[in-house]
Amino acid sequence: MRIAETSDLWWKNAVIYCLDPETFFDDDGDGTGDFGGLIQRVDYLAALGVTCIWLMPFYPTPDRDDGYDVTDLYSVDPRLGNLGDVVEFIRTAKDRGMRVIADFVLNHTSDKHPWFVESRKSVDNPFRDYYVWRKDTPPDTSDQVVFPGEETSIWTQDKATGEWYLHMFAKHQPDLNVANPLVRDEIAKSMGFWLQMGLDGFRLDAVPFFLELQGTSKEGSATVDPHDYLSALRSFLNRRNGSGLLLGEVNVPYKDQLKYFGGAAGNELNMQFDFLSMQNLYLSLAREDARPLAKSLASRPKIHPDNQWAMFVRNHDELTLDKLSDSEREEVFAAFGPDEDMQMYGRGLRRRLPTMLKGDPARIRMVYSLMFALPGTPVLFYGEEIGMGEDLSAKGRSAVRSPMQWTDGDNGGFSTAPAKDLVAQVVDGYFGPKNVNAAAAKRDPGSLWNFMATLIQRYRESPELGWGDFELIKQSDPKVLLHRCTWDGSTLVLVHNFGAEPASVAASLAGDAETGFEGAYLRDLLDGEDVELAPDGGFELELDRYGYRWLRVQRPGQRHIP
Predict the structure, then answer these.
(1) What are residue 539's DSSP bridge partners?
(2) How far apart are alpha carbons 113 and 415 in whole angstroms?
(3) What is the sign of the dihedral through the CA atoms of 102, 103, 109 and 113?
(4) Chain mean position to CA 283
(5) Based on the number of CB atoms within 10 Å of its own CB, is 474 exposed (0-12), middle (13-18) or buried (19 or more)?
């Protein structure tokens, strides 16, 4: 493998930054962020080291679900700009060396979408079969509702025809019928449109729900295999853009995630979020015990070399803990969200990391060091790089979707509009703009922003993390996670202390692909000292409370990046 080949599968060692255009930066002063504002902030993202920008939905919408209720897959919500603004943004980002992907909502549309408006007119309307309908009264499906408390059934009766339509999410978001070849063609065509506009791929929303054939007739279900369709969608993407990315939201057990990758062939989703490791990371943090995370990482299935895991510690939804046991979830709630208002749906948290960790700089930095050090591609949610908090006065998941904090001025520098006209309230209190803002952070050498920028640079200089083979290294302290990633004859050793007390580590690299360690040592990649290696690969480390180290095995004659 040559280092040049890492550019072919760019997503394996990218740095992805998720943002919502409406809450990032308001250029025209109407209180809502826009593409004009994004263009003004492209250089900020380039300076941080971002290599791929992920846009949350920007399509026309009634905005009852923060843009995920789409009325037109071929346009832009006029509050955010127009197609010309999108093209200008994409060109500017690419000029700065960043790719752009976007959320693609393929599970459902808004009930205001022209397809659904037509479909509900009559049972024989040409668009009727774009959605899933039933004539008979459905059984109780309250246990299948995705957002408990917001809906009581996954079926709603439409007054126009008396029939029921399927909606796994909200009733104003009817599910599309993937068994209909016309729907599949429309999805591909709209993807092709945005690829032609310059996008480099898509984050696919709620993939398992999209491929679910619930409610479709036996005849309809027999016409399509969901995974064959996902594979066909990937083939279409690659025909239109050979380096295009499909990043899937798939929160299922590992064995099922393997299917969504395409199994041994790896020909469906290029990347998937590792929800299981994220959830066990929080359990490890709550217990100050690295073993839950280590167990999760060790249980990952082997995936095709072209596929990749996406690593994250915060996303734009509730921080789901649904794969933990009830008792484990309660441990995490007790540690990081003890108030009921901090929790969502009884399964997740609506808080950001700095507030959950009570602003402890050492602990926050350890977590981000770990996110970049784990095998996979790191995904940041806007504002993480400066340590933004949440707004618990906002409804539901909107708590973590407050405006980006640029300065300590009015509205955090997000907009010149009156505060009452903002699309969302700026965070108040200690984690608000007075203490947490990008302008101050960029100019402070000791800030979280500069720490993250350094992490990103080291990550980009360390292809072992995105491409290498992962292995846990045995050592005796349960508070410490010690692992290595090996690729193309080079090994990185990563160590993280989950404990509030200092820790000592004694371990060995015996079994490394290279034989013998005569003259070798561990070169520090952050700001510590190099570490001696015994001829048999043994070494010792001292770690501070919540300490972390990035070390590369340096052998005589090797010419790694200094």
Answers:
(1) 507
(2) 30
(3) negative
(4) 19
(5) exposed
Q: What is the DSSP string of 229-298?
A: HHHHHHHHHHHH-TT-EEEE---S-HHHHHHHHTGGG--S-SEEE-HHHHHHHHHHHHHT-SHHHHHHHH
Burial 262-286 (b: 16+ CB within 10 A, else e): beeebbbbbbbbbbbbbbbbbbbbb
| HEC letters along 87-123 | HHHHHHHHHCCCEEEEEECCCECCCCCHHHHHHCCCC
CA distance 419 to 410: 8
The closest alpha carbon to 413, from 434, 395, 396, 386, belongs to 434
What token pair was written down for 168?
A: 């796994």
Ramachandran class of 266: left when φ > 0, alpha when ψ lies in -120 to 50, beta otherwise:
left
Give CA–CA dist 324/335, Å, rounded: 15
Please give the radius of gyration of the chain, using alpha carbons only, rounded to the nearest integer. Answer: 24
Active site annotation includes 225: no
Structure tokens at 391: 């707004």
Profile the chain (562 residues) by mean pLDDT over runs of 10 residues: 81 97 98 98 98 98 95 98 98 98 95 98 97 96 91 96 96 95 96 98 91 66 79 96 96 95 96 98 98 98 96 95 98 98 96 98 98 97 98 96 98 98 97 98 98 98 96 97 94 98 96 74 95 95 98 92 78
Q: Residue 11: which residues within 8 A CB-CB, separation 6 or more? A: 52, 201, 245, 247, 270, 271, 308, 377
Q: Which of 85, 205, 268, 384 is catalytic?
A: 205
**Distance from CA of residue 412 to its chain's centroid?**
25
| Cα dihedral 497/444/96/19 (nearest 10) | 60
Is 318 considered catalytic here? no
Which tokens go with 299? 């249980």
Number of neighbouring beta carbons within 10 Å of residue 159: 6
SS (H, E, C) 358-402: CCCHHHHHHHHHHHHHCCCEEEEECCHHHCCCCCCCCCHHHHHCC
Q: Angle CA(114)–CA(118)–CA(119) in degrees, nearest 5?
A: 115
Query: Which residues does 159 contact at the CB level (< 8 Å), separation at least 6?
Result: none
The one catalytic residue among 249, 274, 328, 390: 249
* Dihedral sign computed on CA atoms, order 285, 287, 290, 292: negative
Placement of tokens 């008396």 in the chain: 162
DSSP letter for 317, please.
Answer: S
Tell whether pTM > 0.90: yes
